[in-house]
Design goal:
Length: 454
């Protein structure tokens, strides 16, 4: 769907077999490999959460599931419950969840659902005191492109696209390969077990994005440390804002340098970008750099980690990819469908949205559950099965329309090179003993450690 298709929105659809409003095909929880996998969920095996729906309100079941340890290990059974309800689920604190593919896809381009940071933080503040702290932080981060609505979003996107081009991304291929090989060489030379996250999936995108920015090697550790603190609200809002100060001051100096002496880096390209005399302000420049760091580091780390874990739990699919390395492009698309890093995104209702017998009202918050939409049997055949040969179009993992992820081509390229190189150089790769450790964030699904042997 292109960026011009922004006036459509979720509407009540006719009931019928396979339609969003009618009976839906059964989906098996957990996504087991039917071709020889011995993989399990990260901790306890997936519970059957559907057998009590005849006697218990599914809303109560969903509320319990979303707060359970099972959900962190394997959220997909709970997502199936969300999809199968006749109307959208609303949490006890008043947040709506959209989980069907058609609804999520339409909502992503619906102007009645706002991505504006001020509107969202006002809605958060109305529900919890934490919203007020988040509002303080978002005001500091400026007008990040991903947190704006038209027409401001279109203006920012046009300017940023001039610096973040497909040609620039493809030119990074040799450098990405070099970084992957160097990190693997270093880890293997240490003669210990491999931790995919610490040894490859985390340092790779951090190195690549710093290369893109033209950040000197000596400055990278502190820049990334500030970034980590800025994105960790558990550290306390005052410490987060202190990190924002340091990050902003550093980038202000870099931006001033690039204005005076442009280089062959993305900050220089963004400084030079113009459209009919319009340019990015300094606030917009540093906000864009923060956005690119956020999208370019964490998302890619978790795409690689989740993808490798899925392959190791589905050995027949892993063998297929090892036998046909040219399959790596479609494989990454399937891996990001099967277990995407970004599980859900948030919107605020700007104008009433009637949907499946309920109305989302102005001021309401809505979670668009991308990961649930990617497992919708009304859109994907046998969606809980990992199938690297799947040819049903790309999933919603990177969004669609005007908010399609700017960094998606770079994330895909890094994942293709990292995963392809890993399984080529280490054909005997397998999971080490122990349970992979997951992040606690339900919005972003990723691993903090993935021990491997080879």
């Amino acid at each position: 769907m292109d960026d011009t298709d922004t006036r459509s929105g979720p509407t009540d659809l006719p009931d019928g077999p396979g339609s969003p409003g009618g009976p839906r095909p059964e989906s098996a929880p957990g996504g087991a490999d039917t071709t020889g996998s011995t993989g399990t969920t990260d901790s306890a095996s997936t519970a059957d959460t559907t057998d009590t729906t005849d006697t218990t309100d599914t809303a109560e079941i969903i509320t319990r599931e979303l707060a359970s340890d099972r959900f962190r290990a394997d959220p997909y059974p709970a997502y199936a419950l969300l999809r199968d309800r006749p109307e959208p689920y609303r949490s006890p604190d008043g947040v709506w969840y959209l989980a069907r593919h058609d609804d999520v896809q339409a909502a992503l381009t619906d102007l009645r659902l706002s991505n504006d940071r001020d509107r969202i933080t006002r809605a958060l503040a109305a529900r919890t005191g934490a919203g007020r702290d988040i509002s303080r932080l978002t005001r500091r981060l400026g007008r990040v492109m991903t947190n704006t609505d038209p027409p401001e979003h279109a203006r920012l996107r046009t300017l940023v696209n001039k610096g973040f081009t497909a040609r620039r991304i493809q030119q990074l291929r040799p450098r990405i390969q070099q970084v992957v090989d160097a990190h693997l060489d270093r880890a293997l030379a240490a003669g210990r077990r491999l931790d995919l996250i610490a040894d490859l999936a985390a340092p790779l995108p951090a190195t690549v994005i710093c290369d893109l920015f033209g950040i000197p090697e000596a400055d990278r550790p502190r820049l990334l440390a500030w970034f980590r603190r800025m994105t960790d609200l558990t550290d306390g809002i005052d410490r987060v804002e202190a990190a924002v100060d340091r990050f902003e001051n550093y980038l202000a100096g870099v931006i001033a340098e690039r204005r005076a002496a442009p280089g062959d880096d993305i900050i220089s390209a963004l400084v030079a970008a113009q459209e009919r005399g319009d340019r990015l302000t300094d606030e917009e420049l540093w906000s864009t750099c923060f956005m690119l760091l956020t999208a370019g580091v964490d998302t890619t780390t978790h795409l690689i980690g989740n993808g490798v874990l899925a392959l190791l739990r589905h050995p027949a699919q892993l063998r297929l990819l090892q036998q046909d390395p040219a399959l790596i492009g479609p494989a990454v698309d399937e891996l990001v469908r099967y277990d995407p890093p970004t599980q859900m995104i948030i919107r605020a209702v700007a104008r009433p949205v009637p949907l499946h017998g309920v109305t989302l009202r102005p001021g309401d918050l809505v979670h668009l559950v991308l990961a649930a939409a990617n497992r919708d049997p009304a859109r994907f055949k046998d969606p809980d099965r990992l199938d690297l040969t799947r040819d049903e179009g790309r999933p919603l993992s990177f969004g669609t329309g005007r908010h399609f992820c700017l960094g998606a081509p770079l994330a895909r390229l890094e994942a293709e090179i990292a995963i392809g190189t890993l399984i080529r150089r280490l054909p005997g790769l397998r999971l080490d003993t122990g349970t992979p450790r997951r992040r606690a964030n339900p919005m972003m699904r990723g691993l903090t450690a993935l021990p491997l042997t080879h």
